[in-house]
Amino acid sequence: MPPVPDHPAVFSAARRDALLAALAPHRGRRIVFTNGCYDIVHPGHADLLARARALGDLLVLGLNSDASVRSLGKGTDRPVNPFPVRAYVLAHLAAVDFVAEFEEPTPYELIRAVRPQILVKGGDWSVDRIVGRDLVEADGGTVVSLPLLPGFSTTALLERIRATR
Question: CA 39 to CA 8: how far, in whole Å?
Fold first, then answer.
């Protein structure tokens, strides 16, 4: 796969300090945070990101590193798209202000660093299971589980692709 150009809104895990510096002028605004693998971006992703962004003033998307995706047991062929490709596509969506890589299985430490006022996950996550809830609520923030757009799933899409081989 050819390399993608750099994007100023994409921050690797090694550049977390640069992310925090980029967020500094926005402190005092409502920062929304969500996260995921976003392996193959589909309408369900675009819908969730747009609705998450609408809850605040800017959206930080925590994006699993390739190793983090593999650690989740989604399959030996995942991620289909490497981090630079996933991040580049996501950074171009109007709803996304910053894309921040995290290497751990969960974005807990990234959430601790970003300190969002609003934490969002898709409706397949109940609020009590959302990682970082304790941090956000301790800061007086809100944790939201948004309903998913029915019929869209990366796993289901990959199963359909595999079945046609």
Answer: 20
Cis before 147 (ω within 30): no
Compute the distance between CA of residue 61 and CA of residue 45 in angstroms, rounded to an integer.
11
pLDDT above 80: residue 78: yes
Predicted local distance difference test score (pLDDT) of residue 58: 98
- pLDDT category of residue 159 using cuts at 50, 70 and 90: confident
With beta carbons less than 8 A apart as the criterion, state whether 55 and 30 touch: yes
Residue whose pair of structure tokens reads 């005092």 in the numeric block: 28
- Burial profile 150-162: b = 16 or more Cβ within 10 angstroms, e = fewer: eeeebeeebeeee
Could you give the percent of the chain with pLDDT greater than 90? 79
- What mean pLDDT value characterizes the chain? 93
* CA atoms of 5 and 39, how far apart (whole Å): 18
User: Which helix (H) or strand (E) segment is 85 a member of?
Assistant: helix 83-91
Please give the structure tokens belonging to residue 18: 């640069």
CA dihedral (70, 73, 79, 83) positive or negative: negative
Identify whether the C-beta of residue 145 lies closer than 8 Å to the C-beta of residue 125. Answer: yes
Q: How confident is the model at residue 160 (pLDDT cuts 50, 70, 90)?
A: confident
> What whole-number distance in Å separates Cα of residue 76 and Cα of residue 165?
17
